[in-house]
Design goal:
The protein is of the alpha/beta class and 225 residues long. It is built from seven helices and ten strands. The strands form two sheets. It has a six-stranded mixed sheet, with helices on both faces.
Length: 225
């Protein structure tokens, strides 16, 4: 499902004494993730985990190397092309939920499907909100929901479009232990039911242990476990 070859990411070094100096964030990452697999990307803060996730999801462009998803080279697509590709194949769950405050829970889940031209979006959105236990909160706005409830809305939104791949960046990072465990259970339950490939970045050992495989980054390099 996902293949990346010699993936590199460099950015200009702010305040560097040498003109044109660059900071190397990722150093030639090569990996393969199979369809339906669950994979945790782990490592210390600053090791490049979120950068790698953004490149795999087509949210950022690599400095060198390639990312292929289901045979499509993301580097061959322009920004609009990558956005269309993400709409078809990819779901994303962020640590900070990324819900629109002016929209209800139902409307937040509906919006991506509406933008992609799906049919029966209200019915589909309600089904997934029911699935994550928020059937009584459809008309509530994000500020009326707890952190755990907001993350469940984000999960419903991610799964409602039936993505082939779900990327999650620290999905339990802003939640207490009990709420985080509930979100983890939902994440893997939906993953099993939908057959979605799951790739997540986490510091949460419990979450990482639930995955079939772990990829560890150390200072931008992949360390085999």
């Amino acid at each position: 499902m996902i293949n990346c070859d010699n993936l590199q990411k460099r950015v200009p070094m702010a305040g560097g004494k040498v003109a044109g100096a660059e900071l190397e964030i990722l150093k030639g990452i090569t990996l393969e993730i199979k369809s339906g697999e669950s994979v945790a990307i782990v490592g210390a803060s600053g090791s490049g985990k979120s950068t790698l996730l953004g490149l795999l999801a087509g949210l950022d462009e690599a400095s060198a190397g390639s990312v292929r998803i289901n045979g499509t080279d993301l580097g061959a697509l322009d920004e609009d092309g990558r956005a269309r590709f993400r709409g078809r194949y990819i779901g994303f769950v962020f640590q900070s939920f990324q819900l629109l405050p002016a929209l209800t829970a139902l409307e937040n889940v509906m919006l991506p499907m509406e933008l992609q031209g799906h049919n029966n979006v209200a019915q589909q959105a309600e089904h997934y909100l029911q699935r994550v236990g928020l059937g009584e909160r459809l008309r509530h706005y994000p500020l009326q929901l707890s952190g755990g409830e907001q993350q469940r809305v984000a999960l419903a939104r991610a799964f409602a479009s039936r993505p082939a791949i779900l990327f999650a960046d620290e999905p339990t990072g802003n939640l207490d232990t009990r709420t985080g465990q509930h979100v983890i259970d939902l994440l893997f339950e939906l993953n099993r039911e939908e057959g979605t490939t799951l790739v997540l970045v986490t510091h949460d050992q419990t979450l990482a242990d639930r995955c079939q495989r772990r990829l560890r980054l150390d200072s931008g390099s992949l360390v085999r476990e």
